[in-house]
Amino acid sequence: MGAGIGGLTAALALSARGHDVTLIERRTAFSEVGAGLQLSPNASRVLADLGLGPALRRAAGEPARVCIRGLASGRQIGEVALGRAMRERFGAPYWVIHRADLQTILLDAARGRPGIRLLVGRAVTGLSEDGAGVALTLESGSGRIETAAADLAVVADGVRSALRARLDRRRLRALYQAAWRATVPREAAPPALRGDETGLWLGPGRHVVHYPIAGGRTINLVAVMPEDGGSEEWGAPGDPSRLRAAFADAAPPLAALLGLPESWLVWSLVDRPAARPMARGRVALLGDSAHPVLPFLAQGAALAIEDAAVLAGALAGGQPVPAALARYAADRAERVRTIQAHARRNGRLYHAGALVSAARDAVMGRLGPARMTERYAWLYGWRPLGSA
Q: Is the full-model pTM beyond 0.90?
């Protein structure tokens, strides 16, 4: 349930192993809200194994490095090797891509598979299960009620999942921070920031990430800063003057870049522990519905893609569905909790005050590009069981 990145990848992975899949999506259009996202090797290899490599190579970019700078000083703090270094070390690329481009690639592939059926404009309003399967109640925008039956249900309806409470009732926790997202034409950016690289600017309580997407024509911008309250409306318009005021002390090239967008979309950041369990009986959670990941490690989409591969593998073993889903949940539990913890830790380090940030900067500078990459070998080197 849910035809976002995780749901579509799961449909493709399950279809590739011979399962018939029905994708149920509340929306009727697929204009993916958001801008860019990062596909590290742990995710890109899964998508390539599904036959999407050629389409992704045409649409994605592959930055040569992450350049880490002080937000106010503009001084380079450190560097993370990407590009060829990632391919050589982990056997798969580190791609950046417009979210809508990835959604289009996945959706086109799903529509081309005879075993995948897509139902749009339906919300799942009820779910029941027995020993034989699950029954879903669907409601259209006009109020029409339908039912659907299946061997299992995969819930991939995002961080504010309406169905997660079947397995785990812990509530979302507001962080009182917001991610502001925008895109700008690359040629409009300051010359120093037009390069084929990811920029990461760190400051007390705030940070900014930018990288080229859409074939290098556009720069994706994400600025994370404090907010007084929170909103459940994802992608609400933001007032550019508020953002510029929050980054008034930014180094001149960054300030100029942040001053370019005429509109921003704002996401209030929320957190919640990974569901325990991620699956029970004939119902499995996947992606943000199972384990929201804060945007300080660039792993939200990647983890959903990993989930899809592990779920398909677990269901390929010939076990009864409940046993296969229990295996999926067990296989994912430690990894998703570890990645959530690292993302939270990165958030504290990115936004640290003077004393902690001085130590952070010294360590980053001393490590150098290759060792900065190697710190996350455990993350980027992940492969599904049974893969080459």
A: yes
